[in-house]
């Protein structure tokens, strides 16, 4: 039975929740304030804080001012394997991690590096995973496996893992997914010819055993190929950030570590594929995304620039825009933009969703319920308007239920007829 979100929940899907993270992150009041990782997540990430001084001999990987220590690598390998006994090598020797003589240590180091990168990207984008989101993930996995809490605890015991550690692991996966959706948005496509070629390869491997027809297997194969390509895109992005961080010079200042990111003028940003917004408009949006005086940018600004550019397109009705930043041969950065077409609002409904996933109509609890006037069917898709409606729903249900905070969400279904169906979700506390 799967215990990891990647087995099911994090598979990309063009038709579900497209851009919802951007919609929620950049509502009427702008981007949310950065939220520090929880202690559980920080422990799961396994990296020293930027201000921590670590002896060079103990450093396995240095990522700017963050470090992953050799002790942490061994502990992560032991956690993953339920006890590590390297054959003929002493954990902590240079060759174990850097030379790769024990792949378990190399893989553990790579996992810890990935968590550090996710944490750093999340902090720069101002996103976090709430305890409620983690609990919903646990509940979803229990439903998927047809388990109760005792079944889950038994499985964790078999893996020598605590429930606290498991929740931290899920939170880490959720945060990684959020970071990827925010900062990486490529149109990952699979052609019909590729699906058929994969089907024929699979049939040849199992012949002469009976197999499903191509029509029966098509969507499963397409989903698997899409998931593989999405993972490849994600891995490539994190590898790029790792190269940046490992090459980044640092200095000590007042007892703290300071990263020396090179400053670049906005003339070194170029754009490809844009027509709805010209280069000057896009550079102006990019300037609003950076800290400081807005005259220069650094590499850590790129994820937030991408998010703000996407948000601007969402406000113009481009519900399927994809934007990715790439290193150009001349040393500049080019933003590849696939605008797609504009979309209008299709069906709009408001649902109340309980923690167990069951849904109800708001009118069941309130006879005077009236649906919001906007967004309305036929209107141009607009992120800002949807964000305003979500905020009004939060205030309305906080008052109705007498609670301090009500979370909202949005599910989107992008249809081939140029419309987007919306489910405005109010999460019952």
Gist of the model:
With 429 residues, the chain is an alpha+beta fold. Helices cover 45% and strands 15% of the residues.
Give a verbal description of the structure.
A 4-stranded mixed sheet has the order 11-10-13-12. Residues 1-52 and 83-95 have low confidence and may be disordered. It has 13 helices and 13 strands. The chain folds into 4 domains: 25-183, Triger factor/SurA peptide-binding fold, CATH 1.10.4030; 192-247; 261-338, membrane protein fhac (Ubiquitin-like (UB roll), Roll); 344-427, Ubiquitin-like (UB roll). It is α+β, with helices and mostly antiparallel strands and 429 residues long. A hairpin with a 5-residue loop joins strand 10 and strand 11 (359-360). Helix 2 crosses helix 8 (163-183).
Named CATH architecture of the largest domain: Orthogonal Bundle
Q: How much strand content do the residues show?
A: 15-25%
Uncertain stretches of 5 or more adjacent residues: 1-52, 83-95
List how many beta strands DSSP finds: 13
Order of helices and strands: HHEEHHHHHHHHEEEEHEHEEEEHEE
Q: Specify the overall morphology.
A: globular
The CATH topology of the largest domain turns out to be Triger factor/SurA peptide-binding fold
Biggest β-sheet strands, sense, barrel: 4 strands, mixed
Structural class by secondary-structure content: alpha+beta
Order of strands side by side in the largest beta sheet?
Answer: 11-10-13-12
Q: What Rg is obtained from the alpha carbons, in whole angstroms?
A: 24 Å
Mean pLDDT: 80
Number of domains: 4
Measured distance between first and last alpha carbons: 29 Å
Number of helices: 13
Question: What share of residues is helical?
Answer: 40-55%
* CATH class label of the largest domain: Mainly Alpha
């Amino acid at each position: 039975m799967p215990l990891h979100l990647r087995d099911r929940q994090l598979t990309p899907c063009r038709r579900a929740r497209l851009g919802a993270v951007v919609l929620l992150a950049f509502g009427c009041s702008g981007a949310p304030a950065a939220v520090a990782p929880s202690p559980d997540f920080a422990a799961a990430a396994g990296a020293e804080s930027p201000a921590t001084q670590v002896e060079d001999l103990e450093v396995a990987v240095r990522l700017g001012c963050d470090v992953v220590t050799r002790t942490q690598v061994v502990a992560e390998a032991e956690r993953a394997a339920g006890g590590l006994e390297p054959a003929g090598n002493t954990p902590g020797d240079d060759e174990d991690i850097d030379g790769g003589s024990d792949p378990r240590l190399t893989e553990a180091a790579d996992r810890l590096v990935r968590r550090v990168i996710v944490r750093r990207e999340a902090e720069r984008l101002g996103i976090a995973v709430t305890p409620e989101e983690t609990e919903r993930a646990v509940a979803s996995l229990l439903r998927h496996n047809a388990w109760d809490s005792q079944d889950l605890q038994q499985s964790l015991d078999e893996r020598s893992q605590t429930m606290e550690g498991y929740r931290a692991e899920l939170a880490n996966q959720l945060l990684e997914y959020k970071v990827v959706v925010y900062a990486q948005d490529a149109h990952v496509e699979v052609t019909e010819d590729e699906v058929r070629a994969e089907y024929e390869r699979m049939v040849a491997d199992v012949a002469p055993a009976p197999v499903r027809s191509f029509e029966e297997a098509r969507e499963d194969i397409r989903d698997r190929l899409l998931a593989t390509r999405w993972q490849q895109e994600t891995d490539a992005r994190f590898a790029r950030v790792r190269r940046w961080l490992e090459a980044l010079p640092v200095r000590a200042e007042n007892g703290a570590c300071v990263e020396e990111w090179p400053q670049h003028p906005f003339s070194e940003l170029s754009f490809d594929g844009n027509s709805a917004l010209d280069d000057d408009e896009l550079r102006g949006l990019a300037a609003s995304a950076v800290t400081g005086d807005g005259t220069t940018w650094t590499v850590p600004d790129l994820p937030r620039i991408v998010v703000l550019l996407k948000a601007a397109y969402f406000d113009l009705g481009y519900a399927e825009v994809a934007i990715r930043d790439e290193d150009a041969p001349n040393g500049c950065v080019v933003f590849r933009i696939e605008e797609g077409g504009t979309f209008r609002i299709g069906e709009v409904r408001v649902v109340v969703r309980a923690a167990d996933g069951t849904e109800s109509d708001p009118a069941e609890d309130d006879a005077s319920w009236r649906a919001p006037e906007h967004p309305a069917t036929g209107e141009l898709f607009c992120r800002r308007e949807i964000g305003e409606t979500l905020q009004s729903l939060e205030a309305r249900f906080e008052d109705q239920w007498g609670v301090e905070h009500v979370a909202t969400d949005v599910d989107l279904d992008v249809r081939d007829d140029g419309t987007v169906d919306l489910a405005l979700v109010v999460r019952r506390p």
